[in-house]
């Protein structure tokens, strides 16, 4: 019988790419991970790993095992959900991951509702960039996560996760109110604001973040590479920099609280899409069901 804990390490190697990254995710040493994977290979009786230069890759058999592992883990999550549903009342820790603009706008009301309806739940929030949340869910550092992507750059499905749609919002190009940027003259709209800002200075997220890659992709779709002047990962900071005449930025609707008179917000055809994600098989867990319901109620109240 193959050891499920070792299969999880193999699955994580497929996602993370290096033994060092797997070791960090599990708080193991790289040598401990290598030993466990070697033991799994002996259990399987066939080669699972192969070296390509300095990297360790998976054989076709190992890749098939990873797919089976996802099915096994989803079944275990479903079994845990069945047991949890048989208990009386909700209790225990629930770890929720969210991106900053959701933490400021949607999470407070959702937490109030969860605390009122399920006072025995121990709720813990972690603020993360969406890029890092799938790995946090897979490694059980999170139980529920608010993820988002953009319609111009959809995120491929993750075989370890399920999700339910929560929110679709407009994305704006924020420009200084007195700016005459290309065909975005002060007081006038543009049929294609991003294209009109091809000669502007840009404020975008840090490299490696979703906001960074989406801003670059949006500009590339408009036929240019943006001149990046500043990197900022907080939309409030981005809006302050725009108000100070430091450039233009892409800002989703959820991040706009009280617009500054020094900033004009030009609506784009682009949409940001937020969903509630959890491990595959956990959708019926009462705590996950409660979190999804509370987040939906908070989103409805925020938009009204």
UniProtKB/TrEMBL annotation:
The keyword DNA-binding applies. Keywords: DNA-binding, Transcription, Transcription regulation. CDD domains: PBP2_LTTR_like_6. GO terms for cellular component: protein-DNA complex. Residues 2-59 form the HTH lysR-type domain. PROSITE patterns: HTH_LYSR. It comes from the Bacteria. Gene3D superfamilies: Periplasmic binding protein-like II, Winged helix-like DNA-binding domain superfamily/Winged helix DNA-binding domain. One of its GO terms (molecular function) is DNA binding. Belongs to the LysR transcriptional regulatory family. This is Transcriptional regulator, LysR family.
């Amino acid at each position: 019988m193959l050891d499920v804990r070792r299969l999880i390490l193999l699955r994580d190697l497929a996602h993370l790419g290096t033994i060092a990254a797997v070791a960090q995710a599990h708080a193991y040493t790289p040598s401990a991970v290598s030993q466990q994977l070697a033991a799994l290979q002996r259990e399987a009786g066939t080669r699972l790993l192969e070296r390509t230069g300095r990297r360790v890759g998976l054989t076709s058999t190992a890749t098939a095992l990873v797919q089976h592992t996802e099915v096994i883990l989803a079944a275990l999550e479903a079994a845990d959900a069945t047991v949890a549903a048989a208990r009386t009342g909700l209790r225990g820790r629930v770890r929720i991951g969210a991106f900053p603009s959701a933490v400021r706008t949607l999470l407070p009301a959702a937490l109030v509702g969860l605390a009122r309806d399920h006072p025995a739940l121990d709720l813990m929030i972690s603020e993360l960039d969406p890029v890092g949340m799938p790995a946090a869910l897979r490694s059980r550092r999170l139980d529920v996560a608010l993820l988002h992507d953009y319609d111009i750059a959809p995120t491929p499905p993750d075989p370890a996760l399920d999700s339910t749609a929560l929110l679709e919002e407009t994305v704006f190009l924020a420009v200084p109110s007195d700016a005459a940027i290309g065909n975005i003259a002060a007081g006038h709209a543009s049929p294609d604001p991003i294209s009109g800002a091809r000669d502007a200075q840009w404020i975008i997220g840090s490299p490696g973040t979703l906001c960074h890659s989406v801003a670059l992709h949006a500009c590339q779709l408009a036929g240019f590479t943006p001149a990046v002047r500043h990197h900022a990962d907080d939309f409030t900071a981005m809006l302050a920099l725009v108000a100070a005449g430091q450039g233009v930025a892409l800002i989703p609707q959820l991040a706009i609280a009280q617009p500054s008179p020094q900033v004009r917000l030009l609506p784009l055809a682009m949409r940001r899409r937020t969903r509630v994600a959890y491990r595959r098989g956990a959708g019926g867990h009462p705590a996950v069901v409660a979190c999804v319901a509370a987040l939906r109620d908070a989103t409805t109240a925020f938009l009204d």
